[in-house]
Design a protein that fits this description.
Blueprint: H1 9-17, H2 25-28, E1 36-40, E2 43-46, E3 51-54, H3 57-60, H4 69-81, H5 93-106, H6 116-119, E4 121-127, H7 130-147, E5 155-159, H8 168-173, H9 177-180, E6 191-193, H10 213-216, H11 222-236, E7 241-246, E8 250-251, E9 257-258, H12 263-273, E10 277-281, H13 333-336, E11 343-346, E12 358-363, H14 364-368, H15 390-404, H16 406-422, E13 432-438, E14 441-449, E15 454-455, H17 462-472, E16 475-476, E17 483-486, H18 494-512
Parallel strand pairs: 3-16, 5-6, 5-7, 7-10, 10-11
Antiparallel strand pairs: 1-2, 2-3, 4-12, 8-9, 11-12, 13-14, 14-15, 14-17
Bound molecules: pyridoxal-5'-phosphate.
Length: 516
Amino acid sequence: MKPSRKKTQLARLDQRYVWHPFTQMQDWLRTNPIVITSGEGAVLRDDCGNEYLDGNSSIWTNLHGHNHSKINAAISKQLKKIAHSSALGFANEPASLLAEKLVELANPKSIVLENKRHSRLGKVFYSDDGSTALEVALKLCHEFTRRTGKSKKPRFLSLDGAYHGDTVGAVSLGHIDLFHKAYSGLLFKTDKVMSPYCYRCPFNRARPERADAREYRKCNWECVGKVEQAFDRAKKRKQPFAAFVYEPLMQGAAGMIPQPQGWLKKVCGLARAHGAQLIADEVMTGFGRCSSSGDRNQKPVIRNQRSIGIPQTQNPRPKTPSARRHPPSPIFASHTEDVQPDYLCLAKGLTGGYLPMAATLTTQAVFDSFLGEYDEFKTFFHGHSYTGNQLGASAGLANLTLLESLTSIKGRQRIETALINALPALWDQPNVGDIRRVGLVVGIELVKNWQTRQPFDLREQAGVRVCQAMAKRGVLTRPIGNVIVLMPPYCTAVEQVKQMIGALYDSIAEVLGGGE
Ligand SMILES: *Cc1c(COP(=O)(O)O)cnc(C)c1O
């Protein structure tokens, strides 16, 4: 059932007035934009009545599906009381309750804290989006470092390819030249260090195989060595880093770059040993997105399989582990490697993809460094008009209740198993170079030649064209350069996961023709 679309009045209005983010508008004006008018579960509907699967959870925000009765009800209930009141001077009900819940989730029993008072993430600062969550962490860390006398001019270390948002501070932490170069005159200087991109790592001596590059890499953890060198150099310069800023397990906007198991624990250990704080950007990875279900060793069933049909009989299907016996791995990705950051930045999934809201969690030690007599002016001078928004906080509360429900836990396990079973079919396509999955996030890197890993020139827009072909097949997602992202909402059915991967398979074949 292919979508059929004529250009509607709404599409015309959009093209006349709306300027879209990260979009070459000259290209946009040549298209017939899809106007989304409703949604339910993993399905989005346009104003021509076509249905699409939401293949990237509406840019990584949606958790439990659209139009969810429980979140809808929570917002409606709150709406009957009040939509918003200011956090400047007043407390409110849902923001207080949500903060308590976030603190509970951010300090799971499984995490052994070195120093309870100092490592517990006990304080919640609200803001509006991922970028501001990072700005807040940056400012807090900057001040904390100066006030504790650790450094007069705090410096920050982040990863190559990092993306932490689009406000000026967040952009300063980022290292994607394409996005960031234009603003270099506005930014402050930060340092970058090699990120563990196994598929394109110069230290990886393995020849390309039809498998996730992390699995067959041959190296000596040179990427960790690079981080160590960065800290050593800073120490010699007598400018130690105030903080190491990272996305745990998977760097999202960098191109879905997954970290080999153990990397995070190693580099965060190095950072700690050098006295640096840890700023975890879990805007994408948080809320279970990068968590694996019970059995972390689940393996793909098949490789080099010849058809997209998902074999059910000839291959043993990995069993879905019982949610009770195997509680899912932690809600936050840092905890998967037993890392507890000093700042936990949350946004996208915080309200289940309903409303813009963010939170930066931090420790009592950081909080204390801002305490003082009024005339010491140690106040944290930062805030937004909609901080602690009541509708957003009620959506957040309902969202977290759902996240912990057995239905959601089982749903996530089902999706993960479906991905494990269905993704290997894509190896059949010679233009697939790497398939990398962490939890429920998948990046598929398209290449000109898988045997040499030769990339497509960005100008060829391979990723864009494949995603356009997927839209024609009723699946919506957005590429990062030549990397196709699949990130299904947690309510996605196994059949819908197969549909997403089937559409991707057919689109690659159509657009790239299965060869050079
Ligand atoms: C999306 C994202 C941000 C920015 O969040 P916005 O809400 O778009 O400002 C920051 N960091 C990461 C890892 C993200 O994925």
